[in-house]
Each structure stands twice: as C-alpha cells, then as structure tokens.
Amino acid sequence: xxxxxxxxxxxxxxxIQNAARxxxxxxxxxxxxxxxxxxxxxxxxxxxxxxxxxxxGAFKIRGAANFLLSLSVEERARGVVAFSSGNHAQAxxxxxxxxxxxxxxxxxxxxxxxxxxxxxxxxxxxxxYDRMKDxxxxxxxxxxxxxxxxTAPPFDxxxxxxxxxxxxLELLEEIPNLDAIVVQIGGGGxxxxxxxxxxxxxxxxxxxxxxPAQANDTFLSFQKGxxxxxxxxxxxxxxxxxxxxxxLTFPIIQRNVEAVLLATEDEIRHAVSxxxxxxxxxxxxxxxxxxAVVLAHKLPDGVKRCGIIVSGGNV
Length: 315
Known about the structure:
Layout: H1 13-23, E1 32-33, H2 36-42, E2 45-50, H3 60-69, H4 73-77, E3 80-83, H5 87-98, E4 103-108, H6 113-121, E5 125-129, H7 136-147, E6 150-151, H8 158-174, E7 180-184, H9 189-201, E8 206-212, H10 217-224, H11 249-256, E9 259-263, H12 265-279, H13 285-295, E10 305-310
Parallel strand pairs: 2-10, 3-4, 3-6, 4-5, 7-8, 7-10, 8-9
Antiparallel strand pairs: 1-2
C-alpha cells in the first residue's frame, strides 16, 4: 500500500509545528555546539545543530516518526516498507519498533556496515538490491503490493518534510539571531523542511543548500530551473546519493533557497577530520558537507552568524 504524495497545500510552518508536538516523545532534542577554532577557520560564528546525537544517529527519525504517527491504526497494522542506504532505514526501523509495527527495508548491497547492522538490530527485515542495476522503489512497491504494507519514502512526502523541519524550530529557539543556515541535500527533504521552518519563523534568514560536487543533481536542477537526473554518483557522502531531487521537495527548495553550494571529496574529508579534531564530535561524510562548504569559504559575503546542520554521525 502506498500513501499519496499529492497534496493540496505545500508544507507550511504550522505543519512543522504540529509535527514537532507529535514526535516529541519519540525523539531527542539535540544540542547546538560551537567552537572558537571553527569560527576562526570559517571567518564568522558557526552554530552546529548536532543531529549526530539523535536517535539512530541522524535527523531521519524526525520524518520517519512523523510519517508513522500520522498513519491510521489500520494502516500501522499492515506494517511499513522503506528504501534507504542507511539513516532512513534505521529511523523507520526505530519508529516502527516503538509503535509495534513490522518493518521491511530495501537497502543497497554497498550500505555502510554500521548502518546495515544497526537497522537489523532494530528488528527490521532487510531486502538487498544492487544500486547500479536495480530500481529500489520498484522493489519496495512490489513488497507493499504483496504484503499490504505502507511505503515510507525517504524524502518526498509532506509528512517526512514536515518532520525533518522540526530541527530548525529547535535551532532558532535556542539561537534566534542567526542570519543564515546551511543544510545538506540528498533528495531534499531535510533542506525543504528546514527552509520552510526557517523562512516561516524568520523571513529574512538566508538559506543555503550544500551538496557533494560528485552528486550534484540538485545543483544542476537549481541552475536549469527543473529537476535534472544524474547517473548514480560516486561520493564518500553515501547518504546524499539520490539521482534526482524530489517532485515535492524541489519546488520548495527553488522558492526558499538562495544558492546550492558544492563540496569536493577532499573538502568533505577535511571537514570530517577538522570537526572531529577541533570539536571532538563524530560526523559522517554526508553530515559534514555543510561544514565543508563553510570551511572552504564558499558562502557569499555578509554571513555573520550561521547555523550548520550536522545531519548524522553514522560513520
């Protein structure tokens, strides 16, 4: 069984605020950390919203929890199927376990072992696919059709987008005088939700997306003005490897985001190492991409106080 992604209204601030209340018992409120050495390297004040300390080690539990909690009792009884390289997989597995639901996760054969083992430990059934040959969405659709399970997409659904945006509500409550935020981009659910929350609370705030240069589908789409699909990318940022922005997420990004900034593989590696050595926190490559563009001085002039989303720590 699939849940429609057709919506009559775009995700708005009230939807994100409602999601925050809904998921509060199931998530952690994560810390905001700073570092003088990072500030010196960046050239402005940086505030790291550390979702690497979230349940499952990443922000994904926010969207997964909001999605599953928004289902009816009858829909939950059918179970859930999802497709993910790791963090969404863990999030769905955790939320499903909390709600007593069965979960089947379609994962690529090259998933990081830490993410694979964690997903299995949370009680999910895993079905593997070849990232270069197979269609993971088609596999998930067949499982849903055969079992009646609900499909929980990784990013392109209003409930997922609203859930992910809740982290910016926390960030701006704690640090209200930010003039910019930088958010990594996979399929765009996190950036879309964060941009709606940020602009809803503070219309003048500048919002930037950050993407691996080798997985630049949103950058190309942003430049062209329409969704562009790329071949499966080869990047150390394994969580940012969708080949095309979401149908729902991309229009939100177009409306709210000033620019999409690109980080090279070396810049991503440097950011992982720099943040670990200076701040003593573990950040996975996907989570370090915003820090990478900041440390490489790719933001435009005028930014003085910047929120940086650390989306995960599952190395």
